[in-house]
Amino acid sequence: MAKNTICVWYDKDAEAAARFYAATFPDSAVGAVVRAPGDYPDGKQGDVLVVEFTVAGIPCIGLNGGPAIKHNEAFSFQIATDTQEETDRYWNAIVGNGGQESECGWCKDKWGVSWQITPRILSEALSAGGGQAKRAFDAMMTMRKIDIAAIEAARRG
């Protein structure tokens, strides 16, 4: 286990979420699946309690802690993309698997975890500052899934 690991709370589907992430994103995998050694408030002995997994190279633990804690946008995974095809693939995988679209490149998976599918060209435009940053920002504010061609056009003015 890594020294610093992100722990993501799930109701009861940590293993399903980890397997979905591993199938969707490169450099992702499911590691150890730990079962509860005894009954606990939201589960029984033998239920999956913890799942070790990696998402795009980031070590994580999925904890099946029950329904008490809900996800919100204060935590999200940000996935940098290089092409519209890659952006579409990740966006469509998350939204098409019971997820939900949001605005400005944000979406939620069916477990309620927030994702930012962010083309590098958008980050570069915003970092450049000045007029091109403002135009790219204004264009982004009208989008759900980011349209790279529209961001590039906005950058050029």
Which features characterize this protein?
28% strand, single chain, four-stranded mixed β-sheet, 34% helix, 157 residues, 5 helices, alpha/beta
Number-wise, the strands total 8
**Beginning-to-end CA distance, first to last residue:** 48 Å
- The percentage helix is 25-40%
Assign an overall shape: elongated
Q: What is the H/E string? A: EHEEEEHEEEHHH
Rg, alpha carbons = 18 Å
Task: Provide structural commentary.
- The protein has 157 residues and is of the alpha/beta class.
- It has five helices and eight strands, in the order βαββββαβββααα.
- The protein has a four-stranded mixed sheet. A four-stranded mixed sheet has the order 5-8-7-6.
- Strand 7 and strand 8 form a beta hairpin.
- Helix 4 packs antiparallel against helix 5.
- The radius of gyration is 18 Å and the shape is elongated.
Question: What's a quick, concise take on this entry?
Answer:
The chain is an alpha/beta fold. 34% of the residues lie in helices and 28% in strands. The protein is built from five helices and eight strands; from the N terminus they run βαββββαβββααα.
Q: How are the elements arranged and paired?
A:
Blueprint: E1 6-10, H1 14-24, E2 29-35, E3 48-55, E4 58-64, E5 76-81, H2 84-96, E6 100-101, E7 106-108, E8 114-119, H3 120-128, H4 130-140, H5 148-156
Parallel strand pairs: 1-4, 5-8
Antiparallel strand pairs: 2-3, 3-4, 6-7, 7-8
